[in-house]
Design goal:
Elements (H helix, E strand, L loop, with lengths): L3 E3 L2 E3 L5 E7 L14 H13 L4 E5 L12 H15 L6 E4 L3 H9 L4 E4 L6 H8 L4 E5 L17 H18 L7 E4 L8 H9 L12 E3 L4 H7 L7 H13 L4 E4 L2 H15 L4
Parallel strand pairs: 3-4, 3-10, 4-5, 5-6, 6-7, 7-8, 9-10
Antiparallel strand pairs: 1-2
Helix pairs in contact: 1-2, 2-3, 3-4, 8-9
């Protein structure tokens, strides 16, 4: 698999990359939101970097089930003070947004990746990223955050998610986004029941047959709570296990809260796989 072009960065995909989550929202499902305090948010981003993040992912609007959309101006007010600092650190920074003007402002401030839960379905957003050199992550979601978990339904979840993502990739390449800049995300927990999530996870290697890097975002999600019976703040072990299984199934980017622990688990796996040669 080729390297990932991520703005001015070329990221090797010879091992799974760890994307450290930095939530800038008041209502993150994981309870780690840092809204209204740029200094604390910057300190959290530094912790994630020092813990071993290959990429930092900043999100200034919650996409948890039932979330209410954040006004664009408010999202930018949360995002830009933090983004303008962390882009000085020599690490790729992803911004989690589906709003075209937020994307444009983020790219102007130095973001290297746009992480779009709407799968680049907005033509204005597509035009903005195609005019840049940023990496683009397209995600599958059935419905919108406000309604996606009310009654998710599929005939064949794996094939439907795969078809959606391939259509999103085709939109991007038709607009001039090179394949070397694209990532696909099956969207665990976005309009899916536990059974749907597990079917997707089981078939993760078939999402795009290895043509593009897959991002797996499983950290602390409700599916892990449903399996373990643990509350969100008690899901670290399950999250690390899920990240490892995703890596073994070929995921190239692991979006996580617990960066250091995930890096440790990956190091053990890599040592075992190479026989500690």
């Amino acid at each position: 698999m080729q390297n990932l072009q991520c703005g001015k960065y070329q990221l090797a995909l010879n091992r799974p990359l760890v994307m450290g989550i930095v939530n800038l929202t008041p209502d993150s499902f994981s309870g780690d939101g840092l809204v209204g305090d740029a200094d604390r948010a910057i300190a959290r981003a530094r912790q994630q970097l020092d813990a071993g993040s290959d990429i930092l992912d900043l999100g200034a609007e919650s996409s948890r089930p039932g979330a209410i959309p954040t006004p664009e101006a408010e999202e930018l007010a949360r995002l830009l003070p933090v983004l303008e600092e962390v882009t000085r650190w020599g690490v790729p920074v992803s911004v989690d947004t589906y709003k075209p003007r937020v994307m444009l402002s983020a790219l102007r401030a130095g973001a290297s990746m746009i992480n779009d839960i709407s799968g680049m379905s907005n033509p204005e957003a597509l035009a903005i990223v195609s005019a840049s050199d940023c990496a683009v992550c397209v995600m599958h979601m059935q419905g919108s955050p406000g309604s996606m978990q009310l009654a998710p339904s599929y005939v064949d979840v794996l094939s439907e998610v795969r078809e959606y993502l391939m259509a999103a990739v085709a939109r991007c390449t038709a607009a001039g986004v090179a394949l070397e800049r694209l990532i696909v995300d099956p969207g665990f927990g976005f309009g899916k029941t536990l059974e749907h999530n597990l079917a997707l996870f089981f078939g993760l290697t078939a999402i795009n047959d290895g043509q593009l890097p897959v991002l797996a975002g499983l950290s602390r999600k409700s599916m892990l709570g449903a399996i373990t019976g643990r509350s969100v703040e008690q899901r670290s072990a399950a999250s690390i296990a899920a990240a490892m299984l995703a890596a073994q199934k070929g995921a190239k980017i692991l979006r996580v809260h617990d960066v250091a622990q995930t890096r440790d688990a990956l190091a053990v796996w890599a040592a075992v796989e190479r026989g500690d040669r």
